[in-house]
Amino acid sequence: MARGDPRDTAGNPTNYFAVTKTDVSDACVDFLHTQMTNKEYIDAMIKAGEVPAIADLGDRLDQHPNPAFAKAVYEIAQTAPSFTLSWDQALPSNIGDAVVTNLQKVFNKQIQPADWVAAMKNAN
């Protein structure tokens, strides 16, 4: 049996964006780069309890409401050999919505796991 690397991570990062190729994609990338690297924006995210997707945050995470937690999350992200988005984040929104809606129904015992599988086969 193949085993995974326990350092691999999955989840929902803060403020990672994808820009599709359009006639304004360069402007979108420039805006996001300017916004995401703006000191005031990063400091506001840290103060709000987020761990920004920015390299070399260093001591700035000391300003986080929970610095130990923020630094642990940051270290995990920096040292992970791979990162996988949560299913609902990695899928088109109509299918991602079906994933979380029907998963909630499973946890609320409104449908059986087999019903979740059927719902996923029918999602479009």
Structural notes for this entry:
It is a single chain. With 124 residues, the chain is mostly helical. It has 2 domains: 9-85, D-Maltodextrin-Binding Protein, domain 2, CATH 3.40.190; 87-124, no CATH class. It is 51% helix and 5% strand. It is built from 6 helices and 2 strands, in the order βαααβααα. It has helices spanning 25-36, 39-47, 67-79, 87-90, 93-107, 113-122, and strands at residues 9-11, 83-85. Strands 1-2 form a two-stranded parallel ribbon. Helix 5 (93-107) packs antiparallel against helix 6. It is extended. The two termini are 33 Å apart. The model has no long low-confidence stretch (mean pLDDT 86).
Short note summarizing the structure:
This protein is mainly alpha-helical. The chain has 6 helices and 2 strands, in the order βαααβααα. The mean pLDDT is 86.
